[in-house]
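INFO worker-7 received task bundle
INFO bundle size: 2
INFO processing item 0
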Amino acid sequence: MSKTHPFTDLLVVDFTHVLAGPACSYYLGLLGAEVIKVESEKKGDAIRHRGGTDAQAAKAGMSTSYLTQGAGKRSITLELESVDGLEQFHQLLARADVLVENHVPDTMRRLQLDEETLATRHPHLIHCAMTGYGRGGPQENTAAYDVNIQAACGLMEATGTQDSGPTRTGAPVLDYGTALAAGFAISAALYERSSTGQGTFIDVSMLETGLSLMSSSVTDYLRTGNAPKRRGNLANSRSPGAGSFPCSEGVLSLGVNEESHFESLAAALDREDWLTDERYAQRDVRNTNSSELAAEIELELATKTAKEWEPILQAAGVPSARLRSLPEALESPQVKTRGYVQTTADGVDVPTLPFRIGGAQAYAPSSKAPTAGEHNVEIEEWLCTCKGD
């Protein structure tokens, strides 16, 4: 086992669709696991045909949304409602370490693949189920997408301004947050199995993932009864000098939350007078006069562009960053140096993991994203050779 790819020799069966489930198995594959994607013979993963802006690729079943987390896997198409297809699926599970799936419980029960059945037949298996609302409760079989859960968990209600009304985040953060949460849970279950030899069932809720991403707001509300309000670009810390500020060109995000940050900001803007000004010298009084301070900060920042201010303030120790578009962020020296974007064998650029283990430079997919059923013959032959094991 490689110290940089700790899941080498791990076999993952990926019975997922859309974004959250496929992303979870993709992450496991980047860390060394062998991933076999099981798709329907009739249509395969629905995300193959939608998502992204490349209509031709989507029509061919290789949409950019699919390619984002499709590489490094092998694909087999099975009809699980047939006796032969279900038996082949069980043959895969008998050899797998992990099953990742994101179907509602009723679907898994109909296919006789519910957690109780699988635990009895494959006691070694770590079965990770990812659903919108989690097991139990009146909504356990309610279908959900990222945008539904953003609405349900309170994230949309807390995003935007008082004038704009609730706003969805600009990316499917609940899908990818749930994928990372599931990967964390699978890692914990694998660690436990290393000592017990027993598999387990993992129940991942997108709704609770959304609430977890809002943890500080949850605690604040439970403690004070004050529900979060839409604050636009102001920071949750509510500190004066924490938020987004226009410059002569561009916008700068400041995170001036500590006294040392305020002192550094005053020095960088050549406004040390703020440190003795009775309106701003003390933190509690500064909070009272936050609007006046924000106006003065804007006046100073208006003398340069955000691109000019960013290196000045960062060098001074002020938490700050200029607003960038996605293309700009991907072209930044930091992202380039870290190797966050990797290229698959067929030349497709895709995101990798946001962390590195054991000195790894970056994690690249081991192979291109497969077409639906591309490895049917290869996997079926492998299963035949394993029958005597």
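INFO item 0 finished
INFO processing item 1
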Amino acid sequence: MTDTTRGILAMVAASMIWGFSGIYYKMLANVPSAEILGHRTLWSAVFFGLVVAVQGRLGLVRRAILDRRVIRVLVVAAFMVGTNWFLFIVSIQTGHALQASMGYYIFPLVLVALGVLVYRERFSRWQVVAIGMAAAAVMVLTAGLGALPWVSLVLAGTFGVYSLLKKRIELGPVVSVFIETLVLAPIALVWLWGVHLKGWGGSGGWFGSDLRTTLLLICSGPITAGPLILTSFAARRIGLSTLGLIQYLNPTLQFLVAVFLFGEAWTVWHATAFALIWTGLAIYSVDGLRQERLRSRSIRASTLS
């Protein structure tokens, strides 16, 4: 098996875990979202910590924490990804999984728009068309349903800001996310202490109530960490365009789960909005592949000369 094949399989596996993760959190429907997030954060920190220790990169973690510029970026990134995780869990528990899938579909287009606003990157003509179609999809859904698809917009926005922040530091995803979970871990510990001992949230704490729920809460760490490690593995073996295209498997599976397994409403407004988004993403992807081929040709030409 070639490195490229292994990279593709790793990315497919990561996207499938993400895509079916809604089913996992649906199994925890009896547990409050904030409690799930607390356990997801803590067990992710434990899992990432073990991985980093095995890799012998704890020294790199220490240096990153002592670097003021890096830690400032990672603190903001931690709150962006924490918000994203929490809203995804809430969307599953409140019957908005379809909106969540829409958010992850439009995320690449939101990222392009943020790149222009923050880094003064230039739109290509087809990127403008793709972003325009995503904006039209949001307007169609808002007009048809009488409410802004805020779950989609916040998920796409927080993940877009998170991705831009990560571009500012030179740390691998495993090390950086480990530090982000360490930033959030004290908040998670305080919240879970209050839930179990003070009755915060009114649930009394589900961890330890039964074996199934306890194991599901513990495994939320590996479920979160595993796809990131697989994506890191894939990114070193396949091109960014291939990586990006395979990642669309994630929101596609979320979409199928929401409609066919969770039975969420699928109206003509949803159909129109998703058709616009899918068309926009197809245009964006084809344009990205074309630009990558042009860059590759330019590099080959400069090497030969």
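INFO item 1 finished
INFO post-check item 1: The mean pLDDT is 90.
INFO post-check item 1: The first helix runs from residue 3 to 26.
INFO worker-7 idle
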